[in-house]
Amino acid sequence: MDVIMLSRLQFAVAVFFHFIFVPLTLGLSLLIALMETRYVMTGDEAWRKHAKFWGKLFLINFTLGVVTGITLEFQFGTNWSRYSEYVGDIFGSLLAIEATVAFFLESTFLAVWHFGWNRVGKKMHLLSIWLVVIAGNLSALWIILANGFMQNPLGYVIRNGRAELDNFLAVVTNPYAWGMYAHTLISAWLLSCFFVLGVSSWHLLRKSHVEFFRRSFRMAAPIALILSLALALSGDIQGKNVAELQPAKLAAMEAHWETSSNVGFPMLLVPDEANETNSMEGLTIPGLMSWIAYGDSNAEIKGLKDFPKEDRPPVTPVFWSFRIMVALGVIFIVLAASAWLQRKREMPCRGLMTTLVWSIPLPYITIALGWLVAEVGRQPWIVYNLMRTSDAVSPVPADNVMFSLIAFIVVYGVLGLLDIFLLRKYACKGPEGMEA
After folding, report:
1. Angle at CA 80, nearest 5°, toward 74 and 81?
2. Distance (Å, rounded) from C-alpha 108 to C-alpha 61?
3. The model's pTM
4. Max Cα–Cα distance, the chain, nearest Å
């Protein structure tokens, strides 16, 4: 493999491993804040116990997530130096704000929250966890804004042979970035709800700490239903952004080869990228793809054949990742609705609870597939229609990148297994084991 592919693989490994930790951090902090809010408002000690139990799991995930995130920004200097040189004036400013403002705010008040039980007042302690929530979600915002510039570059001028910041307001109001941000946050919050539902179901199946986990189940179920529906809506909005701003990505997502109007949505097809066609195409709903993309069933959708081959994204991985992601999204709605309907029962259906336990990994897989669609679907551009990925890589030997790639896989693999081990260990102990 050449240095370009190896550098892409290394960054993909770093990002995907880091994103094992990020969504649970974003969503679980919000649920903990809601639990502690109920404790402060009602004085019910059970909610304090809930906040401490789920808070310990949050801290494990947050700590390991920080470790995996440190190396990401360094890769822009080691593996993508030409990219950093070309757009660093814009990209670097966004990452600097994230690191020096949002991340340090989150870390500081997380320490206040963790060490402040019985040391600061209830309201101050509650404020600290809400500031963790706000700072964590702000941290995600600045990173998504940086990625949004790569997807839809705005607010720059070409000067001195590089892209320089010209309009900061245009960068931070990028509609593509805000669509990504909404979709990312909602998916992270939903992942955390399914994590709580899955862990609660595991204990309920074993009749362990029944009252405690019944309460957690009842709290998470309606939030999961609302978020699963909101996720579908945000996905539709972002899909329309893709249609308007990245038509080649849309065509790859749908394996659409010929430019046409009133485009139907085939329920079943297999893309044949080599022959620029599809096979096994059947059960097509007339006009649905045009309506989904543009809100008009007669709208024209540009086909992949109208783009030069060197400007087309890889069709097969983008198409299947998108289809599987959407299918899993439908499953989440069904599971969340089922949990909501059974939340007031003394003991929800065993089949549902078993499914929820085994469904804990599914939101992680769905988020990974969504990022694969977003990033691979942008290729061959590292900054859409501005800079090619092949022009952004550092001039380093491929052997060096191969060595660091193997090292990343080994180290991140250990950290990933450690996170799973610790979360499983302390989640299975329950609240009494956690207090001890």
Report:
1. 85
2. 17
3. 0.89
4. 69
In contact, 264 and 282? CB cutoff 8 Å? no
Angle at 371 between CA 222 and CA 72, to 5 degrees: 110
Counting other chains too, the contacts that 414-417 makes at CB distance below 8 Å and 24 or more residues apart are 415/17, 415/64, 415/67, 415/68, 416/17, 416/20
Element holding 277 (H helix, E strand): strand 277-285
Q: How many residues make up the chain in this entry?
A: 436
184-214 pLDDT per residue, tens:
999 999 999 999 999 999 989 988 888 888 9
Q: Tokens at residue 379, please?
A: 């290729």
Angle at 131 between CA 339 and CA 368, to 5 degrees: 50
Instruction: Report how far apart the first and last C-alpha atoms of the chain are (Å, whole number).
Output: 51
CA distance 405 to 396: 13
Instruction: Reduce the DSSP state of residue 349 to 3 states and report it.
Output: coil
Q: Which two tokens stand for residue 166?
A: 């010209």
According to DSSP, the β-strands at 260-261 and 300-301 are antiparallel
Please list the ranges in the chain whose pLDDT falls under 70: 67, 433-436
Check: CB of residue 360 under 8 Å from CB of residue 198: yes
Structure tokens at 41: 């408002």
**To which residue do tokens 């709800």 refer?**
193
Which structure tokens are listed for 351? Answer: 């089949």
Amino acid sitting at position 77: G
Instruction: Determine which helix (DSSP H) or strand (DSSP E) holds 289, and give its type and residue range.
Output: helix 288-294
- Best CA proximity match to 242, nearest among 322, 169, 137, 330: 322
**CB–CB of 336/362 below 8 Å?**
no
CA angle 198, 64, 202 (to 5 degrees): 15
Q: In sequence order, what are the residues at sequence separation of 6 or more whose Cβ sits closer than 8 angstroms to the Cβ of residue 218?
A: 343, 344
